[in-house]
Amino acid sequence: MTYQDILVHVDEHPSSKPRAAAAAALAARLNARLTGVFLKSEFLRDAMVAESLAYMPPDALQALIEEEAAARLQASEAARGIFEAEARRAGANSDWLVVDGRDQELISCARRFDLTVFPPIAKVSLSLNDISAAAVALGSGGPVLVIPESGAPPALAERVVVAWKGSRESARALRDAWPLLSQAKEVHVLIVSPRGEGGPDGLLQRHLENHGLKANLIVDRSHDASAGQILRDHVAALKADLVVMGVYGRPRLQELVLGGVSHDLLSDPPCALLISH
Questions:
Q1: Position 80 in a domain
Q2: In what residue span(s) does the UspA domain sit (predicted)?
Q3: Same structural domain for residues 209 and 139?
Q4: Which structural domain, as residue segments, surrounds residue 104?
Q5: Could you point out which of 12, 45, 204, 233 has its C-alpha 20 to 30 Å from the C-alpha of 213?
């Protein structure tokens, strides 16, 4: 498996630059095509919740619509400038998309790519709507590379921690991460097991070796910290620049329900996260 098509969310804010740079560097390294995506708001759909608009004179409403359209175009062009500058700097082949900023539109788009690069929470430009990386991972059927606001090193995935618990989600995340794991200098597989289950796994070790990986298996039986904190501690001690983990949870109505470790790390990522469901 490899990543041939990579999608990255970019908006008009400077905080998009480290994410665009990380995605462009990865695309250039893997010889993949990179597509930047801007999430646009629909003014009438978003704004008509304000009842006062219904009483505006037609000419005033038209002027407001045109002003908002110009602001959306300006934001989109600013985002495109950030994206294209980073793609050129990295030497990555690139495309540009503008899609509706509703969750399902973006998730549907992400299903057409091998990897989506996303912030923990993406704000839709000029809108109150936002979309979480967890929602994209739960809905898209593919891996999501979450880049924290501080960015990621150009040689991302030199030191990787795989959070393993033997579940379907863990196995899916491991498989989705092969293109990055195969290039890593160090791979550490962490099993958090306070009650002693899930010790050193010979089949897992052999599976990794069959993929050319000599991974270090770590079993942490700590009782005095949450699994999320234990994972954070190992990331810091190992100086890891990527965590591979399954996302546990489901979207219910309009509220996203996540498992404890997923919520912990996605709310404040200690480094880049490769998440999958």
A1: yes
A2: 158-275
A3: no
A4: 5-146
A5: 233
- 140 and 100 co-located in one domain: yes
Report the chain's mean pLDDT, rounded to a whole number. Answer: 89
Domain boundary pick from 120, 146, 172: 146
Distance of CA 134 to the CA centre of its chain: 8
Q: Please state the three-class secondary structure of 111-122 as a single string.
A: CCCCEEEECCEE
What is the end-to-end Cα distance of the chain in Å, rounded?
A: 17
Measuring CA to CA, which residue among 122, 107, 99, 103 is closest to residue 36? 99
CATH number of the domain enclosing 58: 3.40.50.620
Mean pLDDT on 249-270: 77
Enumerate the H helices of the chain as residue ranges. Answer: 16-30, 43-47, 58-90, 103-110, 133-140, 168-176, 178-181, 202-210, 227-238, 260-267
- Helices 16-30 and 58-90, packing angle to 10 deg: 40
Tally the domains of the chain. Answer: 2
pLDDT in tens, 27-61: 999 999 999 999 998 755 554 555 556 666 777 66
Q: How high is the pLDDT of residue 185?
A: 96
Average pLDDT over residues 215-234: 89
Tens-place pLDDT, residues 62-97: 666 777 778 888 999 999 999 999 999 999 999 999
Tracing tokens 């801007």 back to the chain, one arrives at 38
Distance, CA of 26 to chain centre: 14
Helix, strand, or coil (residue 218): strand
Are residues 72 and 126 in contact, defined by beta-carbon separation less than 8 angstroms? yes
Q: Are the C-beta atoms of residues 217 and 201 closer than 8 Å to each other? A: yes
Listed residue (67, 69, 7, 19) closest to 40, CA to CA: 69
- Whole-model pTM: value is 0.91
Does residue 204 share a domain with residue 137? no
Final residue of a structural domain among 97, 112, 146: 146
